[in-house]
Automatic annotation (TrEMBL):
Record carries keyword Oxidoreductase: no
Top-level taxon in the UniProt lineage: Eukaryota
Positions of the Xylanolytic transcriptional activator regulatory domain: 97-276
GO molecular function (one): sequence-specific DNA binding
Protein name: Xylanolytic transcriptional activator regulatory domain-containing protein
Pfam families, sorted: Fungal_trans (PF04082)
Cellular component GO terms, alphabetical: nucleus
Organism: Exophiala dermatitidis (strain ATCC 34100 / CBS 525.76 / NIH/UT8656)
The entry's keywords: DNA-binding, Metal-binding, Nucleus, Transcription, Transcription regulation, Zinc
Protein's UniProt keywords contain Methyltransferase: no
Length: 514
């Protein structure tokens, strides 16, 4: 063999080795960033059909007798039987998926649009379609069908129930071998539970999704060298799945005033390339609000954690001003952009509930100053007004959030009225700066909204009944006080005691500055 041939052979061997090494590195990178299977610690995870996940979502905290569904007037809504997705005309499913992608997906991107339509194709074209694909189409169409409530509530509820039954019938094996499928399913279940809290425990599903995302390492950005070996779509899917899990878990904990504060240095995952605060994208703005909400909950309800999380603030005054500024900046950034205003449909409600929590009594501010009390009262009425505005055209879809917001705002408004009329006896026209007639209208709206929620979430009926009683008492007291009649003084302390028993906490009451 001559020298040239030997060199050529050596060159070919080197090229083959280089190609094999590159392929091995690429395959290893894909395995690293695209999670499949479970570790030994996850082998004993509950199936997604377990009662731990598929049970009632947490109720708003009121001191009520244990609920008995058998004694409830009308009982639980009748469940519809499962319906084969392939039996639904494809153009109908396409219309519902289009609505889902335009309305819900921008805020809750639990599954990629391309993956969603790939699953649609599998359902209609593949006789051996997988369980996960059927589940995905059934639950996303069920989420989308909730928007038909304003057209025909009974028909929409029956359609949603049937699609939900279909989704559950294909849920048992999902996620037992694929962690990726389980993560997406948990996020979709949480989203569905926000609209139908009687079917899904949103707190359990959201928390499980976040734990799984951290376990899979999605909170860490893939090293630069590995990124060069992987398609950017996989990297962006990792980022999207982490931040959506983080956001929905943060949302459920914030509503229940629970701490949620993962150490920021541990989170290096970027937003997906499609999401940016600078380019006014929807997900990025929702995710940024979740971080503000978490900081508010932690700073107000758990000030003892300041040492563990020093970024909360060096002083209560500085923290309050800084947090109000961050919240106001977020709100104005949405209001200035017509697309964001349309897509983040509940931005006013999201803003006002945080204003209420920032200014009402809390462990950090047990006795808010007068201006904080005024802001909280106005925010409480704004919340009731916002939910009522969505209810009138039949758009009160997010039942779980609506129930918690209305009851939180309602109980605060009642307590502020009962204290306000004692504190300002000379002005019989206004309460915390608002016209008495306006306040009366808002109080009257509280139980009617909760009763409407109870039509689809029966366990809220006790809340509606209890609130109706205390609202009627408070309206009677306020009207007597405003008209200059006698006898209201003796009823105030009784109403305050009743409200205190109902809310389990005297912190609900407004206290005057010392």
């Amino acid at each position: 063999m001559d020298l040239a041939a030997l060199r050529n052979q050596s060159s070919n061997i080197a090229s083959n080795v280089t190609a094999a090494t590159d392929q091995l590195a690429t395959d290893l990178a894909k395995v690293t960033v695209e999670p499949r299977g479970y570790s030994h610690k996850q082998d004993s995870l509950d199936p997604l059909t377990s009662n731990y996940f598929l049970s009632d979502s947490p109720l708003p905290k009121l001191n009520l007798e244990p609920w008995d569904g058998n004694k409830s007037e009308g009982g639980q809504p009748q469940s519809a039987p499962p319906k084969a997705i392939s039996s639904i005309p494809r153009h109908v499913v396409d219309a519902m998926l289009k609505h889902y992608c335009e309305t819900y997906h921008p805020q809750y991107p639990s599954i990629g649009e391309a993956d969603l339509y790939r699953a649609r194709d599998e359902v209609y074209q593949n006789p051996q379609v997988g369980e996960f694909d059927i589940f995905v189409i059934a639950i996303t169409v069920a989420i989308s069908s909730n928007t038909l409530m304003h057209v025909d509530e009974k028909r929409a509820a029956t359609t949603t129930s049937g699609l939900w039954a279909t989704a559950v019938s294909h849920l048992n094996e999902i996620g037992m071998t694929s962690s990726w499928d389980r993560l997406q399913a948990l996020q979709l279940l949480t989203h569905y539970g926000f609209l139908n809290p009687q079917d899904v425990n949103v707190s359990h599903c959201a928390a499980a999704a976040t734990r799984l995302a951290f376990h899979l390492g999605l909170h860490r950005e893939v090293p630069p060298l590995t990124q060069t070996k992987v398609d950017t779509s996989i990297l962006n899917t990792r980022r999207r799945m982490f931040w959506n899990a983080y956001a929905i878990d943060a949302a459920t904990r914030t509503v229940r005033r629970q701490p949620f504060k993962w150490s920021r240095p541990e989170i290096t995952a970027k937003f997906p390339d499609s999401e940016s605060l600078a380019t006014q994208t929807h997900c990025a703005h929702v995710w940024s609000l979740r971080e503000i909400e978490c900081d508010i909950t932690l700073g107000l309800e758990y000030p003892m954690l300041d040492l563990e999380f020093p970024d909360v603030a060096p002083s209560p005054e500085h923290w309050y001003v800084r947090t109000h500024t961050r919240l106001e900046q977020w709100y104005q950034s949405v209001r200035r952009n017509a697309t964001l205003t349309a897509k983040i449909e509940f931005h006013k409600l999201l803003f006002q509930i945080q204003v209420l929590w920032l200014n009402r009594p809390s462990p950090r501010y047990p006795v808010p100053i007068h201006e904080m009390q005024r802001k909280a009262g106005i925010a409480a009425m704004a919340l009731i007004r916002e939910v009522s505005m969505f209810d009138r055209p039949g758009k009160m879809f997010m039942l779980w959030h609506a129930a918690h917001c209305v009851i939180e705002a309602g109980t605060y408004l009642l307590s502020s009225v009962l204290v306000g009329i004692e504190s300002h006896p000379d002005d019989r026209i206004h309460v915390f700066g608002e016209d008495v007639a306006v306040v009366l209208r808002h109080i009257k709206t509280i139980p009617s909204l909760v009763w409407k929620i109870a039509r689809r979430w029966p366990r809220i009926k006790q809340h509606a009944s209890a609130l109706e009683a205390i609202c009627n008492s408070t309206m009677d007291i306020l009207q007597r006080w405003s008209d200059g009649q006698d006898g209201w003084q003796s009823k105030v302390s009784m109403a305050q005691e009743e409200l205190g028993q109902l809310t389990l906490s005297r912190s609900t009451y407004i206290q005057e500055e010392a």
